[in-house]
Design a protein that fits this description.
This is Efflux RND transporter periplasmic adaptor subunit. The longest helix is centred in the middle third of the chain and has 51 residues, at about 160-210. The chain has 5 domains: about 5-95; about 100-105 and about 380-450, conserved putative lor/sdh protein from methanococcus maripaludis s2 fold (Beta Barrel); about 130-155 and about 265-295, RNA polymerase II/Efflux pump adaptor protein, barrel-sandwich hybrid domain (OB fold (Dihydrolipoamide Acetyltransferase, E2P), Beta Barrel), CATH 2.40.50.100; about 160-260; about 295-375, Elongation Factor Tu (Ef-tu), domain 3 (Beta Barrel), CATH 2.40.30.170. It contains 5 helices and 24 strands. Helix content is about 40%, strand content about 30%.
């Protein structure tokens, strides 16, 4: 307890002063009682029409004045002096306290605008590569041209492919000829098989009558079996010739389809954003990039949302997109989707924002500033950056208690906004914090406080 408070308590409970005051009160009461009795006696003893003696009245007045003076000197005046002394000591003690500037820990706004950088991209973009070997014969579009789905973009001259088509057609004709030959051979083998069957049957009948030898009959029976086997082989040859025809047809159809790739067409409506070849350039299948086409009606940008806001990012959240090259213009979009998982290295949520671009003012590849309008159910505490103290014991702030004493409180800091800090743990809303604490601010020391306005000025 400070000295001023101890002195106040001591004077407030002084038994001698209390006893003197009680005696003074008793003497005054007795004096008043005697004056009243004297007045009554005078009224009875004095005859009507005669006043009391002036000396008696004067004596009573002098006695009363003496008693009041004694009481004032011995009771009231010391009490006043003690009060003034206590007040002076308290004032001196208060003025001796260090003066500190304070700011309150407060909740951040529920609705905030989160500014994040992003790069604008096309929602649908496709590279167009060649699917036929050859040379570029014609180029019909260039960068910046708008194209429709299926529009002819370029033609490729492919002489080797044309030769392959001709070879495939010839091979198909050969397959048809082989089929005709195999069919003729099959018919002949079937006729020979029928003749061998009849002959073998006759010789078998003759053998039963004993007209021919068994050896001769066996020879004709063997000839019949050989003709039957040859007929079966010819049937398989016909089937193989037919399969060759189907294979030749498929190869020709494939080559015809590849030959159609000599005409390069747009896969969808959009704008040519890249042209990579000129007339006469050598084209290789699947390796030469001819064009790049992108749809421009709706664009998108990807932003990395910090972990603290990941739980409030949902499809449909409003977004504003600004580009430095288009001052004064703000493009409105919405969150389309997010990855639903944080990147382990950056602790951020990949989020896609789609922006309508009907007038084609935005271009893919532009750097953009994306502002997400989000609302938080339980926003964190915010404190001025000048209240943060880095001590060996950890990160802390100097809290001013209700009795104006100092307590150093450890806190867990979130994001750093420069002038303000986000506090995750350790403080309560409304607590007063010392701004720019110096060496005079120690644990338990009582201080005088001066509140700061939000702009940092004292008030």
């Amino acid at each position: 307890m400070p000295d001023s408070e101890q002195k106040t308590a001591h004077h407030g409970h002084d038994p001698v002063a209390a006893e003197r005051e009680a005696l003074l009160r008793a003497e005054i009461a007795k004096l008043k009682e005697r004056a009243a009795r004297a007045a009554d006696a005078t009224d009875h003893n004095v005859r009507p029409g005669r006043r009391p003696s002036s000396k008696a009245v004067l004596g009573i007045a002098i006695l009363a004045a003496i008693l009041l003076g004694v009481g004032f000197t011995t009771g009231y005046l010391p009490k006043v002096r003690r009060t003034e002394s206590i007040t002076a000591e308290t004032k001196a003690d208060t003025e001796a306290r260090p003066t500190v500037s304070t700011a309150l820990a407060k909740r951040s706004d529920t609705a905030i605008d989160l500014d994040l950088p992003g790069s604008i991209q096309a929602v649908t973009e496709a590279p167009i590569l060649a699917r036929a070997d050859g040379y570029l014969k014609r180029r019909l579009v260039d960068i910046g041209d708008r194209v429709s789905a299926g529009q002819l973009l370029a033609e490729i001259e492919a002489p080797e492919l044309d030769n392959q088509v001709q070879q495939a057609k010839a091979a198909l004709q050969q397959s048809y000829a082989a089929l005709e030959q195999a069919t003729a051979s099959l018919e002949q083998s079937r006729a020979n098989e029928q003749l061998a069957r009849i002959t073998a049957q006759r010789w078998s009948n003759l053998l039963g009558k004993g007209a021919v030898s068994r050896q001769d009959n066996d020879n004709y029976q063997a000839q019949f079996q050989a003709q039957s086997a040859f007929a079966r082989a010819q049937e398989r040859a016909v089937a193989a010739a037919r399969s060759n025809i189907e294979a030749s047809k498929a190869n020709l159809e494939r080559l015809n389809q590849v030959q159609g790739y000599r005409q390069v067409r747009a896969p969808f409506a959009g704008i040519i954003t890249l042209r990579n070849v000129d007339v006469g350039a050598l084209i290789s299948t699947g390796q030469t990039l001819l064009y790049r086409v992108a749809q421009m009606g709706t664009l998108r940008t990807f932003v990395n949302v910090p972990q603290a806001y990941a739980d409030v990012i949902k499809p449909g959240v409003e977004a504003e997109v600004a580009v430095a090259d288009l001052p004064g213009r703000v493009f409105h979009g919405k969150v389309a989707r997010s990855s639903s998982a944080l990147d382990a290295s950056s602790r951020t949520l990949l989020t896609e924002v789609q922006i309508p671009n009907q007038d084609a003012a935005l271009l893919p590849g532009m750097y953009a500033q994306v502002t997400l309008s989000i609302r938080r159910v339980n926003p964190p505490l915010i404190i001025p950056g000048d209240t943060l103290l880095i001590r060996p014991q950890g990160t802390m702030v100097a809290v001013v208690r209700p009795d104006n004493s100092i307590h150093f409180q450890k806190i867990l800091v979130g994001r750093d906004f420069g002038k303000e800090l986000e506090v995750i743990k350790g403080l309560e809303e409304g607590q007063a914090l010392v701004v720019n604490a110096n060496d005079s601010v120690q644990e338990g020391v009582k201080v005088k406080t001066v509140k700061l306005k939000e702009d940092g000025a004292k008030r």
